[in-house]
Design a protein that fits this description.
76% helix, 9 helices
């Protein structure tokens, strides 16, 4: 990744064929399980999502973000539906599952919740890319604008996907994540 175009292409692959799409499926299914009151299914989804990541560091990242998101939501916006959804969950909860749980517990529809989630993760990826390449803020906004249609289409695909549709084809990103966690000096956790 050496310029805005190669960063955009990398992020597009991550969004449409990698962790962005898979995390979207987990969010959608967690949301639907909470809405249905199917907490056994929610526990299965949470376990699968926590185990699904490709590297130890990425697993730590997503479960730490999930725990932090849930802790903040319970402190600032707790509700009985959130307590009920979390009552039977044991172990780590990945960030997209946490977002699905909280949004469903608060009665937010799944489609706009998913769109906001995808927009946020793409924005975070761009922020990291701007610091690493380096690029300017204008390049970042152009990349975000260029990826918006992919954010929408990835969300639309995830809304129709089953857990059997989980899978990615971003092998270079997965390998880079595995290599990154063993580097001595790093700017980011993953």
């Amino acid at each position: 990744i050496v310029d805005a175009a190669s960063l955009r292409d990398w992020l597009n692959a991550m969004l449409t064929g990698g962790s962005g799409f898979c995390d979207s499926i987990f969010l959608v299914h967690a949301h639907r399980s909470v809405v249905a009151g199917d907490y056994a299914s929610l526990a299965d989804i949470a376990e699968l999502a926590a185990a699904y990541v490709t590297s130890r560091e990425r697993q730590l990242e997503t479960t730490a973000q999930g725990r932090a998101f849930l802790d903040i939501a319970r402190t600032a916006w707790n509700c009985s539906a959130l307590d009920a959804a979390l009552a039977n969950l044991k172990g780590s909860i990945a960030y997209p599952v946490a977002v699905g749980i909280v949004s469903a517990a608060h009665g937010l529809p799944v489609a706009p919740s998913l769109h906001a989630f995808l927009h946020a993760i793409v924005s975070n990826w761009i922020s990291a890319g701007l610091r690493l390449v380096p690029l300017g803020q204008t390049d970042g906004q152009r990349i975000l604008a260029a990826l918006e249609a992919d954010v929408v289409s990835t969300g639309d695909r995830a809304l129709c996907a089953t857990l059997d549709d989980l899978g990615g084809a971003t092998f270079r990103a997965d390998l880079a994540s595995m290599r990154h966690e063993t580097q001595y000096t790093r700017l980011f956790r993953s």
